[in-house]
Write a structure and sequence with these properties.
The chain is about 20% helix and about 25% strand. With about 475 residues, it is α+β, with helices and mostly antiparallel strands. Among the domains are: about 100 residues, no CATH class; about 110 residues, no CATH class. Strands 15, 16, 17, 18, 19, 20, 21, 22 and 23 form a 9-stranded antiparallel β-sheet that branches. Strands 9-8-7-14 form a 4-stranded antiparallel β-sheet, with no helix packed on it. A hairpin with a 2-residue loop joins β8 and β9.
Amino acid sequence: MNKWVKFGVVLVIYLLWAYWVGSWWLLILVPVIFDVYITKRVHWAFWKKKGVKKQTKAVEWIDALIFAVIAATLIRMFFFEAYTIPTSSMEKSMLVGDYLFVSKVAYGPKLPNTPLAVPFTHHTLPFTKSTKAYSEAVKWPYKRIAGTSKIKRNDIIVFNFPAGDTVVVGRENPDYYSQVRSNVDYFLSQSPSLSRADAEKMVRERMAERFEIIARPVDKRENYIKRGVGMPGDMIELKHGQLYVNGEIADNPEQLQYKYRVKTNGIPLNRMKLQDLGIALDDISMGASDYELPLTLDMVEELKKFPNVKEIVKVEETGNNADIFPFDPENYPWNVDNFGPLYIPKKGDVVEVHFDMQPRVVKANEKVVADRGRVAVERGPIVYCAEWADNDFNIQNIILNRHPKFQVTEKPELLYGINEITTEVQALGFDAAGKLATRDVTLTLIPYYAWAHRGEGKMDVWLPVNRIDVE
């Protein structure tokens, strides 16, 4: 074939690929392709002897190996990749350890965030526990290029586990955040007076001291596989273990499993027969005279025929589960069997984000003599102050309550828009007889950055909580 024809075919394929990837920076390599096929001035295959048709066996092996690595890397990146099933969450559809080939073209390949990596590895080098198989010297932003189809309801999807961004090396499962929540709950059970924020801070510090904790880029997080049951704009909900989509019962997959408690007459179940039913040995949890087993409806009917089985009851979680998204059982009392309703945003939706930051009291550093014994009020990162313009009493003659309650009010018309805080305090003064007296007043606080825009007057950040500190 004429060298110009070869060059033309390769160039067209390369330009189509560059258009697909959506990066015209790849055009920089067009002169390289031209030199390889036309001018041949640079010896690009430096491992070969130039001008020698018959290469040595070693060179031929090196040449074949380089080609295989490049070809396999491009195939894994843009066309398909092999995965293993990591968990039993889709058991009966897919089993732990099963191998499957996943099409990258279907939804569009995702370009790597860390392109410098050891071929055929994920995040850790083989035969090591924590040695990274990639370099973060070069980082690319997240980008997914065009695919041949869109995600459809009930598609089985492989994705990077979102909570896998932070990892406890050697203890990857459960994820770091689940371990933090579990340890926080333990600390709170041992010290009920401890606040959740303080307990979480303590847990994170102790985990950082005891374990190696690392962060992983998106493309190096663990691969998970799940079924996509909700589409953009859907409302999903679990009621007693049954999935509802937009208020209607969803189609259940074949061989759907639930957890059941199987009670016997005291005679143990035959493990071989349980395996014959399709129950894995690892899934057999046994008590004194009962078992907890993941079963399909067909398995339930078969087990009812066992002479030593007295009762089979479906297990349903009750109460709140703090380890269920969004990990806020007080406002979202959900669990694994009763979840939602949860709306899935679609393109064009407007999501209003409200950071419900509660005001808090912070103590002054004892080393600062002028502020010793006083407190300030913060809301998130913003420090507040009391200014004369908002209070019709001497703001430097007040005492803040030991357990103050704060009210936050939006004031869009005040000082170009602020959030104002009010709280009840005691103002000191003298009565008609000249005796020291107190009266209850409402103290108004504004963000510290907004003061001194309404004339001259008093302002205070550090507020007294004891009479001795009142000026």
